[in-house]
Amino acid sequence: MQPANRPAPLAIDAPPPCRRRVLIVEDSAAQRRLLSILLARQGYHVLEAERGDLALAMCREEEPDLVLADWLLPDMTGIALCQQFRALPRQNYGYFVLLTSNSADNDIVAAIEAGADDFLAKPVAAQELLGRVSSGERIMRIEEELRASNAQLKTALDRLRQTQEALDRDLREARKLQQGLVRERSGQFGQFEVSLLLRPAGHIGGDLVGFFAISGERIGFYALDVAGHGVTAALLTAQLSVHLSGSSDQNVALRGAQAGQDAVSPMDLAHFFNNMMLEEMSTDSYFTMIYGDLNHATGELRMVQAGHPHPVLQRQDGTMEQLGKGGMPIGVFERPVFDAIATQLAPGDRLLVMSDGITEASAPGGRQLGDEGVEAIMRTNAFLHGHAFLESMAWSISNYCRGERPDDMSAIMIEYRGEAQLVAFPQGPDGRSRAP
Length: 436
Prior knowledge:
By secondary structure, this protein is of the alpha+beta class. The chain has eleven helices and 16 strands. The strands form three sheets. It has a six-stranded antiparallel sheet. Strands 2-1-3-4-5 form a five-stranded parallel sheet, with helices on both faces. Helix 2 packs parallel to helix 3. It is rod-shaped. The N terminus and C terminus are likely disordered. This is Serine phosphatase RsbU, regulator of sigma subunit.
C-alpha cells in the first residue's frame, strides 16, 4: 500500500538508444550534483563545469549533445556562453537549455536571439527537467534523421549528376551522328538550287531533311518531323534516313528505278512508310512528311503532303501561295488520306518546305508565328538566297521566340534561279549609265 502523500512515479521516456553527452554548467556544486544524478540515471553521459571558460573547452573537446547552463556564471552570462557555443564548429546540432529564475520578457527574447532552445526555472523540478531533456532528445533525433536524409540525397544527386554528365556526352555524340545524316546541306541541279536547314531544339531531335538524285533530270527531296523530340524521335529519324539515303540499294524511292522502272511516286512512298510504321514497328510514334519529285529540267514538281505544314511557293513577282490541303500523318491510320500536290515552277520562283517548329514558334506572350509570319519573313528576305536566306530566317524566328525555342526547326529551300538578266540603268545627260 502506498502512502497518500507520496508522489506518483515519474512518467519518463525510455532511455535513449545511444548515450547522449550532457554538459551541466553551474557554479553551485550541489545543483550540479543533483542534475548530474538525475540525468545519469536515465543513461546520459554527464559532464560538469562550474565556469563558462571550462564549459567552452569541454564543448570543443567533447562536443556535448545537450548543454544545461545557469543564467549567471562566475565569468560570463549564460547568454554569452550560448552565443559562443553556437559559434563553435560541430558535426551535429547542440541543444542549449538555460536555467534561470529570471522570467523577464526582454531577457527571454535576448536568450532566444542568442540561440537558446529552451528554459528551465530554478529551482529545477526533476520531472520538468527530464521532460525538457526528452523534448530536446526528440529534436536532436529529427535533426540527425534530416542530416542523414540530406547526406543520402546529396549522394543520390552526385550520382545523378554523374549520370547526367555521361548522358550529355552521349547525346552530344548522338547529335554529331544525327547531323551526319544530312550529308549534303546544299546542291545544284541545273538551274535549281536546294538548301537545307536542320536545328534540333535539344541535343537531338526528330526532324530530318534531305535530297537525292533520281535520274539525270529528276531529284527527290524530303522533310520529316517525328512526333516529339528526344531519343525515341532521333532513333526513328535515323531509321527513316536509311530508307531515304542516297544509296540506291537502300533508298525505297529508287527501288523501282533499279529494276528499270520509274522511281516510286510520292504518294506510293507515303503509303509504304505508313504500312511500315503500322506493321513492322512496335511503337506509338508517328511522323509528318513532305516528299517531292522535281524535274529540274522542266520545273515540273510533284509532292505528297502527310500532315506536314503547307509548303509556301513564292513566285518571281513576289506573290505567295500555300500548297496542299494537309493530309494525314504517317503511322496513325490504316487507310490514311494523303494529299497529292502538282505544280509548275518558273524561273525566279522559290519553294519553302518547313516543319511546325517554324510555323508554331511562339513569342513570350504565346502568339505563334503562323503562316502570315512565315510569309512576312520570306518577303523581308526576298533578296537573300540559299543558306543566307535560311540562316536569316532562323535568326528571325529565334528573335521572335526570345531564344526560347521548344521544338526542332528544319526547312528546305528550292530555288529556280533561271538565267541571269541584265538590268539597264537609265542614262544621264552625259550619256553615262547611272544606278538609281
